[in-house]
Specification:
The chain is of the alpha+beta class. It is about 25% helix and about 30% strand. The chain contains 5 helices and 10 strands, in the order H-E-H-E-E-E-H-E-H-E-E-E-H-E-E. A 5-stranded mixed beta sheet has the order 5-2-3-6-9. A hairpin with a 2-residue loop joins strand 2 and strand 3. The radius of gyration is 14 Å and the shape is globular.
């Protein structure tokens, strides 16, 4: 995977470029009728859904937390709460998630968010040489090593997904 010079684009791509990270951008035509943003991305890129990760915003004991989990599974809220030493976790209000991150639902990236939030990356990410996450817009994904994502977001890694 070669480092690609990207034009100024989404805050996620700008953040990756500024960090000198190695990444690849994958663009595809987003279908608004598709029932799952993540599964659509995996199909469009011809990548296993285990390697495409969705970015979810949850509230743990009143604080927003970013959870990055494979699109092939779902977020285990109890495991997320435990990963950040919290008691209760629930999905955040979508409008609050959009305002806080600066991204729209279905295009929330763990990178380049408006407000830096605590981030937890599912442990399964380390099983792959690279993973794909939203680049900050529906129809745009960025592929990078999980270790790079973890470093740039100061993420902790924990098993937070379930099949």
């Amino acid at each position: 995977m070669a480092k690609k010079k990207q034009p100024a684009g989404t805050p996620a791509i700008v953040a990756l470029t500024a960090a000198g990270a190695e990444f690849t951008v994958h663009a595809y035509e987003h279908d608004p009728a598709h029932p799952s943003y993540g599964e659509e991305a995996a199909q469009a890129m011809g990548v296993s859904p285990d390697r495409v990760f969705k970015t979810l915003i949850a509230e743990v004991d009143g604080a927003l937390v970013v959870a990055v989990v494979p699109v092939s599974g779902s977020l285990d809220l109890k495991a997320l709460a435990a990963a950040v030493s919290g008691k209760r976790a629930a999905m955040a209000d979508p409008a609050l998630a959009e305002r806080t991150t600066g991204y729209v639902r279905g295009g929330i990236s763990p990178l380049g968010q408006r407000k830096r939030l605590r981030t937890v990356l599912d442990a399964s990410a380390s099983a792959h040489p690279t993973i794909c996450v939203s680049a900050g817009r529906r129809g745009l994904e960025v592929e990078l090593p999980a270790s790079t994502l973890a470093a740039l977001t100061s993420a902790t890694t924990s098993p937070i997904s379930r099949p």
